Amino acid sequence: MEKNIVLLPGDGIGAEVTREARKILEYLAERYHFDLKIRVLPVGGASIDAHGVPLLDEVLHSCRQADAVLLGAVGGPKWDNHPPEIRPEKALLALRKELGLYNNLRPVRVLPPLRDASPLRPEVIEGVDLLVVRELTGGLYFGQPKGISVENGQETGVDTLRYSAPEIERIAIAAFRAARQRRQIVTSVDKANILASSQLWRKTVSRIGADYPDVELRHMLVDNCAMQLIRDPAQFDVILTENMFGDILSDEAAMLTGSIGMLPSASLGDGTAMYEPVHGSAPDIAGKDMANPLAAIASVALMFRYSFGHEQAAADIEAAILRVLEQGYRCADMSRQARQVLSTREMGDAVLKNTETC
Ligand code: NAD
Protein backbone atom coordinates (compact mmCIF):
# COMPACT_ATOMS: atom_id res chain seq x y z
CA MET A 1 0.00 0.00 0.00
CA GLU A 2 1.66 3.25 -1.11
CA LYS A 3 1.18 6.37 1.01
CA ASN A 4 2.47 9.77 -0.03
CA ILE A 5 2.98 12.13 2.85
CA VAL A 6 3.89 15.79 2.61
CA LEU A 7 5.83 16.87 5.68
CA LEU A 8 5.79 20.61 6.38
CA PRO A 9 8.09 21.17 9.38
CA GLY A 10 7.62 24.96 9.33
CA ASP A 11 9.32 27.15 11.90
CA GLY A 12 10.70 27.10 15.43
CA ILE A 13 9.99 23.85 17.24
CA GLY A 14 7.93 22.65 14.25
CA ALA A 15 11.04 21.10 12.73
CA GLU A 16 12.09 19.50 16.03
CA VAL A 17 8.76 17.88 16.90
CA THR A 18 8.00 16.64 13.37
CA ARG A 19 11.48 15.06 13.20
CA GLU A 20 10.43 12.87 16.15
CA ALA A 21 6.95 12.21 14.75
CA ARG A 22 8.55 11.08 11.50
CA LYS A 23 10.56 8.39 13.31
CA ILE A 24 7.36 6.80 14.62
CA LEU A 25 5.57 7.20 11.29
CA GLU A 26 8.39 5.47 9.42
CA TYR A 27 8.66 2.68 11.95
CA LEU A 28 4.93 1.87 11.88
CA ALA A 29 4.76 2.15 8.10
CA GLU A 30 7.39 -0.57 7.94
CA ARG A 31 5.66 -2.72 10.55
CA TYR A 32 2.31 -2.55 8.75
CA HIS A 33 3.76 -2.71 5.23
CA PHE A 34 3.00 0.77 3.98
CA ASP A 35 5.21 1.90 1.12
CA LEU A 36 5.80 5.35 2.59
CA LYS A 37 7.01 8.27 0.49
CA ILE A 38 7.71 11.46 2.44
CA ARG A 39 8.34 14.81 0.76
CA VAL A 40 9.66 17.54 3.04
CA LEU A 41 8.62 21.00 1.84
CA PRO A 42 8.91 24.53 3.24
CA VAL A 43 6.00 26.45 4.74
CA GLY A 44 5.54 29.63 6.77
CA GLY A 45 8.62 31.61 7.75
CA ALA A 46 10.94 28.98 6.27
CA SER A 47 9.22 29.44 2.92
CA ILE A 48 9.32 33.25 3.18
CA ASP A 49 13.07 33.07 3.78
CA ALA A 50 13.67 30.68 0.89
CA HIS A 51 11.09 31.85 -1.66
CA GLY A 52 9.63 35.17 -0.47
CA VAL A 53 6.11 33.76 0.11
CA PRO A 54 4.63 31.71 2.98
CA LEU A 55 3.17 29.03 0.71
CA LEU A 56 4.32 28.20 -2.82
CA ASP A 57 1.72 27.05 -5.37
CA GLU A 58 3.85 23.92 -5.94
CA VAL A 59 3.72 23.11 -2.23
CA LEU A 60 -0.05 23.53 -2.15
CA HIS A 61 -0.29 21.33 -5.25
CA SER A 62 1.84 18.62 -3.60
CA CYS A 63 -0.41 18.75 -0.52
CA ARG A 64 -3.49 18.31 -2.71
CA GLN A 65 -1.93 15.25 -4.35
CA ALA A 66 -0.76 13.70 -1.06
CA ASP A 67 -2.53 11.06 1.02
CA ALA A 68 -1.94 13.17 4.13
CA VAL A 69 -0.06 16.26 5.31
CA LEU A 70 1.87 16.46 8.57
CA LEU A 71 2.61 20.01 9.69
CA GLY A 72 4.82 21.26 12.54
CA ALA A 73 4.08 24.91 13.27
CA VAL A 74 4.64 28.27 11.63
CA GLY A 75 5.53 31.75 12.80
CA GLY A 76 8.02 33.61 14.90
CA PRO A 77 9.19 37.11 15.82
CA LYS A 78 11.43 37.29 12.76
CA TRP A 79 8.37 37.67 10.51
CA ASP A 80 6.06 39.53 12.92
CA ASN A 81 6.47 42.87 11.16
CA HIS A 82 5.86 41.55 7.66
CA PRO A 83 2.77 42.80 5.83
CA PRO A 84 -0.29 40.52 6.31
CA GLU A 85 0.10 38.80 2.92
CA ILE A 86 3.60 37.56 3.66
CA ARG A 87 3.23 36.47 7.25
CA PRO A 88 3.81 32.78 8.08
CA GLU A 89 0.28 32.29 9.46
CA LYS A 90 -1.09 33.15 6.02
CA ALA A 91 0.19 29.74 4.86
CA LEU A 92 -1.88 27.95 7.49
CA LEU A 93 -5.06 29.77 6.56
CA ALA A 94 -4.41 29.15 2.85
CA LEU A 95 -3.77 25.43 3.41
CA ARG A 96 -6.98 25.08 5.40
CA LYS A 97 -9.04 26.99 2.86
CA GLU A 98 -7.52 25.48 -0.29
CA LEU A 99 -7.64 21.90 1.02
CA GLY A 100 -11.21 22.50 2.25
CA LEU A 101 -10.31 21.47 5.81
CA TYR A 102 -13.46 22.63 7.54
CA ASN A 103 -13.50 19.96 10.25
CA ASN A 104 -10.83 20.37 12.93
CA LEU A 105 -10.79 17.65 15.56
CA ARG A 106 -8.90 18.27 18.79
CA PRO A 107 -9.13 15.39 21.24
CA VAL A 108 -8.37 16.31 24.86
CA ARG A 109 -7.76 13.41 27.24
CA VAL A 110 -6.28 13.58 30.68
CA LEU A 111 -3.94 10.60 30.82
CA PRO A 112 -3.75 9.04 34.30
CA PRO A 113 0.04 9.55 34.73
CA LEU A 114 -0.49 13.27 34.04
CA ARG A 115 -3.24 13.78 36.61
CA ASP A 116 -0.89 15.98 38.63
CA ALA A 117 0.52 17.88 35.67
CA SER A 118 -2.50 20.13 35.19
CA PRO A 119 -2.74 23.41 37.07
CA LEU A 120 -6.23 22.22 38.06
CA ARG A 121 -6.80 19.90 41.01
CA PRO A 122 -6.76 16.17 40.14
CA GLU A 123 -10.38 15.69 41.23
CA VAL A 124 -11.51 18.44 38.82
CA ILE A 125 -9.87 16.85 35.77
CA GLU A 126 -10.65 13.25 36.69
CA GLY A 127 -12.14 11.45 33.68
CA VAL A 128 -11.75 14.31 31.20
CA ASP A 129 -12.06 12.91 27.68
CA LEU A 130 -13.50 15.43 25.27
CA LEU A 131 -13.31 16.27 21.60
CA VAL A 132 -13.35 19.82 20.29
CA VAL A 133 -14.91 19.94 16.82
CA ARG A 134 -13.90 23.33 15.51
CA GLU A 135 -15.14 24.86 12.25
CA LEU A 136 -11.94 25.77 10.44
CA THR A 137 -12.59 27.54 7.16
CA GLY A 138 -15.17 30.21 8.02
CA GLY A 139 -15.92 32.87 10.57
CA LEU A 140 -13.81 35.78 11.63
CA TYR A 141 -10.51 34.48 10.25
CA PHE A 142 -11.77 34.41 6.68
CA GLY A 143 -14.77 36.77 6.43
CA GLN A 144 -14.62 39.75 4.09
CA PRO A 145 -14.28 42.71 4.31
CA LYS A 146 -11.13 42.56 6.37
CA GLY A 147 -8.23 44.96 6.81
CA ILE A 148 -6.96 48.22 8.23
CA SER A 149 -7.94 51.42 6.46
CA VAL A 150 -8.54 55.07 7.24
CA GLU A 151 -12.20 55.94 7.82
CA ASN A 152 -13.21 59.51 8.62
CA GLY A 153 -9.57 60.30 9.27
CA GLN A 154 -9.23 57.46 11.83
CA GLU A 155 -7.22 54.31 11.34
CA THR A 156 -9.78 51.47 11.58
CA GLY A 157 -9.41 47.69 11.68
CA VAL A 158 -12.23 45.52 10.36
CA ASP A 159 -12.89 41.76 10.52
CA THR A 160 -16.11 40.11 9.42
CA LEU A 161 -17.84 37.24 11.21
CA ARG A 162 -19.94 35.47 8.61
CA TYR A 163 -21.38 31.95 8.48
CA SER A 164 -23.77 30.45 5.95
CA ALA A 165 -26.20 27.69 6.92
CA PRO A 166 -24.42 25.04 4.76
CA GLU A 167 -21.10 25.81 6.48
CA ILE A 168 -22.75 25.24 9.85
CA GLU A 169 -24.64 22.15 8.69
CA ARG A 170 -21.56 20.20 7.56
CA ILE A 171 -19.57 20.82 10.75
CA ALA A 172 -22.63 20.02 12.87
CA ILE A 173 -23.03 16.71 11.03
CA ALA A 174 -19.34 15.95 11.70
CA ALA A 175 -19.86 16.65 15.41
CA PHE A 176 -23.00 14.52 15.74
CA ARG A 177 -21.32 11.64 13.91
CA ALA A 178 -18.29 11.92 16.18
CA ALA A 179 -20.56 11.92 19.25
CA ARG A 180 -22.17 8.67 18.08
CA GLN A 181 -18.76 7.01 18.42
CA ARG A 182 -18.36 8.47 21.91
CA ARG A 183 -20.68 9.30 24.83
CA GLN A 184 -23.39 10.84 22.62
CA ILE A 185 -23.43 14.38 23.95
CA VAL A 186 -22.82 17.45 21.78
CA THR A 187 -22.36 20.81 23.47
CA SER A 188 -22.71 23.48 20.81
CA VAL A 189 -20.93 26.66 21.85
CA ASP A 190 -21.94 30.08 20.52
CA LYS A 191 -22.72 33.65 21.52
CA ALA A 192 -26.35 33.58 20.42
CA ASN A 193 -27.40 36.22 22.94
CA ILE A 194 -25.43 38.84 20.97
CA LEU A 195 -24.19 37.64 17.56
CA ALA A 196 -26.40 37.11 14.49
CA SER A 197 -23.98 34.47 13.16
CA SER A 198 -24.41 32.59 16.44
CA GLN A 199 -28.20 32.81 16.22
CA LEU A 200 -28.02 31.13 12.82
CA TRP A 201 -25.49 28.67 14.28
CA ARG A 202 -27.85 27.66 17.09
CA LYS A 203 -30.88 27.37 14.81
CA THR A 204 -28.98 25.26 12.28
CA VAL A 205 -27.32 22.99 14.84
CA SER A 206 -30.74 22.36 16.45
CA ARG A 207 -32.21 21.45 13.06
CA ILE A 208 -29.37 19.02 12.30
CA GLY A 209 -29.56 17.65 15.84
CA ALA A 210 -33.14 16.52 15.21
CA ASP A 211 -31.68 13.93 12.80
CA TYR A 212 -29.60 12.48 15.65
CA PRO A 213 -32.18 11.75 18.37
CA ASP A 214 -29.72 9.35 20.06
CA VAL A 215 -27.31 12.26 20.68
CA GLU A 216 -28.09 14.75 23.43
CA LEU A 217 -27.67 18.34 22.24
CA ARG A 218 -26.82 21.09 24.71
CA HIS A 219 -26.29 24.74 23.84
CA MET A 220 -23.84 26.85 25.80
CA LEU A 221 -22.66 30.44 25.53
CA VAL A 222 -18.95 30.74 24.90
CA ASP A 223 -18.22 32.74 28.04
CA ASN A 224 -19.96 30.12 30.15
CA CYS A 225 -18.07 27.37 28.32
CA ALA A 226 -14.74 29.05 29.12
CA MET A 227 -15.78 28.93 32.75
CA GLN A 228 -17.21 25.38 32.69
CA LEU A 229 -13.99 24.01 31.17
CA ILE A 230 -12.24 25.01 34.38
CA ARG A 231 -15.10 24.32 36.80
CA ASP A 232 -16.28 20.92 35.56
CA PRO A 233 -14.52 19.81 32.36
CA ALA A 234 -15.64 16.17 32.65
CA GLN A 235 -19.21 17.23 31.71
CA PHE A 236 -18.10 17.62 28.06
CA ASP A 237 -18.07 14.93 25.41
CA VAL A 238 -18.07 16.72 22.03
CA ILE A 239 -17.71 20.51 21.98
CA LEU A 240 -18.93 21.87 18.64
CA THR A 241 -17.98 25.44 17.90
CA GLU A 242 -17.02 28.03 15.32
CA ASN A 243 -13.51 28.94 14.26
CA MET A 244 -12.32 31.58 16.72
CA PHE A 245 -14.16 30.21 19.75
CA GLY A 246 -12.63 26.81 18.99
CA ASP A 247 -9.16 28.30 18.66
CA ILE A 248 -9.36 29.87 22.09
CA LEU A 249 -11.29 27.15 23.95
CA SER A 250 -9.01 24.37 22.72
CA ASP A 251 -5.90 26.12 24.05
CA GLU A 252 -7.72 26.47 27.35
CA ALA A 253 -8.71 22.79 27.23
CA ALA A 254 -5.07 21.88 26.50
CA MET A 255 -4.12 22.98 29.98
CA LEU A 256 -6.42 20.30 31.42
CA THR A 257 -3.87 17.81 30.10
CA GLY A 258 -0.96 19.65 31.69
CA SER A 259 0.61 21.20 28.61
CA ILE A 260 -0.22 22.44 25.16
CA GLY A 261 2.61 20.15 24.06
CA MET A 262 0.24 17.18 24.52
CA LEU A 263 -2.55 18.16 22.13
CA PRO A 264 -2.76 16.72 18.59
CA SER A 265 -5.21 17.72 15.89
CA ALA A 266 -6.69 16.46 12.66
CA SER A 267 -8.10 18.78 10.01
CA LEU A 268 -10.45 16.95 7.69
CA GLY A 269 -12.40 17.91 4.60
CA ASP A 270 -13.34 16.24 1.36
CA GLY A 271 -9.76 15.69 0.13
CA THR A 272 -6.31 15.44 1.71
CA ALA A 273 -6.34 15.77 5.49
CA MET A 274 -3.76 17.63 7.55
CA TYR A 275 -2.40 16.66 10.96
CA GLU A 276 -0.57 18.99 13.31
CA PRO A 277 0.07 19.64 16.97
CA VAL A 278 -2.19 22.34 18.38
CA HIS A 279 0.75 24.37 19.69
CA GLY A 280 2.66 27.04 17.79
CA SER A 281 6.33 27.41 16.92
CA ALA A 282 7.31 28.31 20.53
CA PRO A 283 10.14 30.71 19.66
CA ASP A 284 11.10 30.91 23.35
CA ILE A 285 12.34 27.29 23.34
CA ALA A 286 13.09 26.75 19.63
CA GLY A 287 16.44 25.12 18.87
CA LYS A 288 16.98 24.05 22.48
CA ASP A 289 15.91 20.41 22.05
CA MET A 290 13.43 20.83 24.90
CA ALA A 291 10.06 20.96 23.09
CA ASN A 292 7.56 18.24 23.89
CA PRO A 293 7.05 16.19 20.70
CA LEU A 294 4.09 14.16 22.03
CA ALA A 295 1.44 16.33 20.36
CA ALA A 296 3.14 15.88 16.98
CA ILE A 297 3.56 12.15 17.58
CA ALA A 298 -0.08 11.82 18.64
CA SER A 299 -1.01 13.66 15.43
CA VAL A 300 0.55 10.76 13.50
CA ALA A 301 -1.80 8.44 15.41
CA LEU A 302 -4.71 10.54 14.14
CA MET A 303 -3.29 10.26 10.61
CA PHE A 304 -3.32 6.46 10.84
CA ARG A 305 -6.86 6.57 12.25
CA TYR A 306 -8.54 9.05 9.93
CA SER A 307 -6.54 9.01 6.69
CA PHE A 308 -5.40 5.38 6.56
CA GLY A 309 -8.22 3.75 8.54
CA HIS A 310 -5.55 1.83 10.47
CA GLU A 311 -6.80 1.77 14.04
CA GLN A 312 -4.13 -0.66 15.23
CA ALA A 313 -1.25 1.65 14.30
CA ALA A 314 -3.06 4.57 15.95
CA ALA A 315 -3.60 2.51 19.09
CA ASP A 316 0.08 1.44 19.10
CA ILE A 317 1.20 5.06 19.21
CA GLU A 318 -1.28 6.05 21.89
CA ALA A 319 -0.31 3.05 24.02
CA ALA A 320 3.40 3.87 23.61
CA ILE A 321 2.85 7.47 24.70
CA LEU A 322 0.93 6.29 27.76
CA ARG A 323 3.69 3.82 28.67
CA VAL A 324 6.43 6.44 28.40
CA LEU A 325 4.47 8.67 30.76
CA GLU A 326 3.83 5.76 33.13
CA GLN A 327 7.58 5.15 33.18
CA GLY A 328 7.86 8.66 34.62
CA TYR A 329 9.44 10.36 31.62
CA ARG A 330 8.45 13.95 30.90
CA CYS A 331 9.63 16.87 28.80
CA ALA A 332 10.51 20.15 30.47
CA ASP A 333 6.98 21.56 30.00
CA MET A 334 5.67 18.94 32.45
CA SER A 335 8.75 18.42 34.54
CA ARG A 336 7.17 19.02 37.94
CA GLN A 337 6.53 15.34 38.67
CA ALA A 338 9.12 13.83 36.33
CA ARG A 339 11.25 10.90 37.26
CA GLN A 340 13.43 11.99 34.39
CA VAL A 341 13.24 15.05 32.11
CA LEU A 342 13.91 14.15 28.49
CA SER A 343 14.96 16.28 25.55
CA THR A 344 12.81 16.37 22.41
CA ARG A 345 14.99 13.76 20.76
CA GLU A 346 15.10 11.50 23.81
CA MET A 347 11.31 11.65 24.15
CA GLY A 348 10.94 10.66 20.49
CA ASP A 349 13.32 7.74 21.06
CA ALA A 350 11.44 6.67 24.19
CA VAL A 351 8.12 6.60 22.31
CA LEU A 352 9.74 4.72 19.43
CA LYS A 353 11.20 2.13 21.79
CA ASN A 354 7.81 1.60 23.43
CA THR A 355 6.08 1.45 20.04
CA GLU A 356 8.46 -1.32 19.02
CA THR A 357 7.35 -3.39 21.99
CA CYS A 358 3.63 -2.62 21.69
P1 NAD B 1 2.99 28.68 21.20
O1 NAD B 1 2.03 27.55 21.22
O2 NAD B 1 4.05 28.63 20.18
O3 NAD B 1 3.69 28.80 22.64
C1 NAD B 1 2.95 29.10 23.83
C2 NAD B 1 3.75 28.61 25.04
O4 NAD B 1 3.69 27.19 25.08
C3 NAD B 1 5.23 28.98 24.98
O5 NAD B 1 5.68 29.23 26.29
C4 NAD B 1 5.89 27.71 24.46
O6 NAD B 1 7.23 27.53 24.88
C5 NAD B 1 4.98 26.63 25.03
N1 NAD B 1 4.92 25.46 24.13
C6 NAD B 1 4.24 25.37 22.97
N2 NAD B 1 4.44 24.16 22.43
C7 NAD B 1 5.24 23.48 23.24
C8 NAD B 1 5.80 22.19 23.21
N3 NAD B 1 5.56 21.32 22.21
N4 NAD B 1 6.61 21.81 24.22
C9 NAD B 1 6.86 22.64 25.25
N5 NAD B 1 6.35 23.88 25.35
C10 NAD B 1 5.55 24.30 24.35
O7 NAD B 1 2.12 30.01 21.05
P2 NAD B 1 2.60 31.54 20.90
O8 NAD B 1 3.80 31.78 21.75
O9 NAD B 1 1.39 32.33 21.12
O10 NAD B 1 3.00 31.70 19.38
C11 NAD B 1 4.32 31.58 18.87
C12 NAD B 1 4.27 31.62 17.36
O11 NAD B 1 3.58 30.46 16.89
C13 NAD B 1 3.52 32.83 16.80
O12 NAD B 1 4.21 33.26 15.65
C14 NAD B 1 2.16 32.27 16.42
O13 NAD B 1 1.55 32.98 15.38
C15 NAD B 1 2.54 30.88 16.00
N6 NAD B 1 1.44 29.89 16.11
C16 NAD B 1 1.40 28.96 15.14
C17 NAD B 1 0.45 27.96 15.20
C18 NAD B 1 0.46 26.89 14.16
O14 NAD B 1 1.39 26.83 13.37
N7 NAD B 1 -0.54 26.03 14.09
C19 NAD B 1 -0.44 27.90 16.29
C20 NAD B 1 -0.34 28.86 17.30
C21 NAD B 1 0.62 29.86 17.20
Describe the structure.
The chain is α/β, with parallel strands linked by helices and 358 residues long. It folds into two domains: 1-102 and 263-358, Isopropylmalate Dehydrogenase (3-Layer(aba) Sandwich), CATH 3.40.718.10; 118-257, Isopropylmalate Dehydrogenase (3-Layer(aba) Sandwich), CATH 3.40.718. The chain is 41% helix and 23% strand. It contains twelve helices and 14 strands. It has a ten-stranded mixed sheet, sandwiched between helices. It has a two-stranded antiparallel sheet with strand order 6-7. It has a two-stranded parallel sheet with strand order 13-14. Helix 1 (13-31) packs across helix 10, helix 1 packs parallel to helix 12 (344-356) and helix 11 crosses helix 12. The two termini are 22 Å apart. The mean pLDDT is 96. It binds nicotinamide-adenine-dinucleotide. The site of nicotinamide-adenine-dinucleotide has 22 residues, from helix 1 and helix 4.
